[in-house]
Design a protein that fits this description.
- The chain has 412 residues and is an alpha/beta fold.
- The chain has 2 domains: 188 residues, 3-Layer(aba) Sandwich (Rossmann fold), CATH 3.40.50; 164 residues, RecF/RecN/SMC, N-terminal domain (Glutathione S-transferase Yfyf (Class Pi), Chain A, domain 2, Up-down Bundle), CATH 1.20.1050.90.
- Strand 6 and strand 7 form a beta hairpin.
- It is globular.
- The mean pLDDT is 92.
- It binds adenosine-5'-triphosphate and magnesium ion.
- The site of magnesium ion (MG) has 5 residues, from helix 1.
Length: 412
């Protein structure tokens, strides 16, 4: 899919924007704080319902307004299929929002889509932004969000699993609070822990598989970037004993490769899931006393993390700024690889302010292999980017330039 045009209403500093864009490289340039990133952010929010800058939809609405709307017109160049996607966020009662609680409305071709899983994956983007550095040193929630997004973009049903998990854990915590101080009632806890163990085991299997893929791709990228000097390793950490259990099963049955490629039979998944689910249930059960004392669930996939090491040393503790930047780039390039592999087409590439920060070698890593992809790049200096791109983009895909000044975009 490529974007043909972008339409914004009350999004950040755009009260209104209707913009036709080019099929290959689009350069969005202008001084600081004019609205360049806001355009990239809007594309990202409309394609994968997630902003790289804020978890709150409210922040995206133009100051003093009540709702925003983003619409993108799309084209599949392979078969000339046209469609459009729109996302709006309404904070007040209206025709589309019958309650007064804030509501997000998703549409494809003006028809409302009620399930997020049916919306995700229609148009895929991968964004590279200064915030990527948080992947290395930030809180575990940053890496969970990164992993969750990659899985959701390529396996949309995963999103439903996460939703179910979040609902259940919320209900279980509410129930734990009601026991606070006293012993938890085993029947009540079983009511939560059986389904939680079932859903968690499925989520862990997804996350473990994708973490193995991330590790495979990113260690390759990082060796490239560091001229074969640095070994980047990504490993998934979750509820104690789970990975050992999965590994033992996969090794015993010589199924590791089939697990990573996703070609193992359904029956195999059902068997691993069964074993894992029993393990998780016993772990949850072992925590009941302490959980009811604290009034909250102490262990669970809501605490999962990705551990990142460079030459076997924790990046969180020992890495330099440059190493963090390279590792973050390796991780994001692996996201690109995974989405390309799963979707068999290039996602749209969004480069927010990162292009000028990369040295020549990293720029080549990023742009090479993306020859047919649609790319959006933000920068402050047109001349610089023009010169740098000259050597990377072939003549057939001439870049389009857009100048941004105080929320007004002028195509050139
Ligand atoms: N909810 C909002 N409503 C109105 N304006 C907003 C909102 N959120 C941010 N802005 C404004 O948008 C502008 C920043 O836009 P953006 O982040 O796109 O800048 P930029 O052009 O990418 O700048 P830089 O080169 O510094 O990255 C700021 O002027 C900010 O005040
Ligand atoms: Mg910016």
């Amino acid at each position: 899919m490529i974007i043909r045009s972008i339409h914004l209403k009350n999004f950040r500093n755009y009260r209104r924007l209707d913009l036709d864009v080019g099929p290959s490289v689009n350069i969005i340039y202008g001084f600081n704080a004019q609205g360049k990133t806001n355009i990239i952010e809007a594309i990202n929010v409309c394609s994968c319902l997630s902003s790289h800058r804020t978890p709150k939809d409210r922040d995206l609405i133009t100051f003093k307004e009540n709702e925003y709307e983003i619409k993108i017109d799309l084209l599949d160049p392979e078969d000339n299929y046209k469609t459009d996607l729109s996302v709006s966020y309404l904070t007040e009662k209206s025709e589309e929002n019958s309650s007064s609680a804030p509501k997000r409305v998703l549409k494809q071709d003006s028809m409302q889509i009620s399930k997020i899983a049916s919306y995700l994956g229609i148009c895929n983007t991968v964004i590279f932004a200064p915030e990527d550095l948080n992947l290395i040193k930030g809180a575990p929630s940053v890496r969970r969000k990164f992993l969750n997004l990659i899985i959701s973009k390529t396996s949309p049903t995963y999103f439903d699993l996460l939703n179910k998990y979040n609902r259940l854990i919320g209900q279980k915590n509410a129930s734990l609070k009601s026991f606070r101080g006293g012993p938890a009632n085993d029947d009540t806890m079983d009511f939560w822990d059986y389904p939680l163990a079932d859903i968690s085991s499925e989520i862990i299997l997804y996350r473990y598989r994708y973490s193995l893929l991330l590790n495979k791709f990113s260690s390759r990228h990082h060796l490239d970037i560091s001229e074969e000097k640095e070994n980047l390793k990504i490993s998934y950490s979750t509820i104690q004993g789970s990975i050992e259990l999965i590994n033992a099963f996969l090794e015993e049955n010589a199924l590791l490769d089939a697990f990573i490629s996703g070609s193992a039979e359904r029956g195999i998944y059902a068997r691993i899931k069964g074993i894992l689910s029993e393990h998780l249930y016993s772990k949850f059960k072992g925590m009941r006393q302490s959980d009811s004392e604290k009034g909250i669930t102490g262990i669970g996939i809501h605490k999962d993390d990705l551990e990142i090491t460079l030459n076997d040393m924790s990046m969180k503790i020992y890495s330099s700024q440059g190493q963090q930047r390279s590792a973050a780039l390796s991780l994001k390039l692996s996201e690109l690889d995974i989405i390309r592999d799963f979707c068999r087409s290039s996602p749209i590439l969004l480069l927010d302010d990162v292009f000028s920060e990369l040295d020549a070698k990293r720029r080549v890593s990023l742009i090479s292999g993306m020859v047919n992809a649609q790319i959006f790049i933000t920068c402050t200096e047109r001349e610089y980017i023009e010169k740098e791109l000259g050597t990377l983009v072939d003549g057939a895909s001439l870049p389009r330039y857009f100048h941004v000044e105080n929320g007004t975009v002028t195509p050139e």
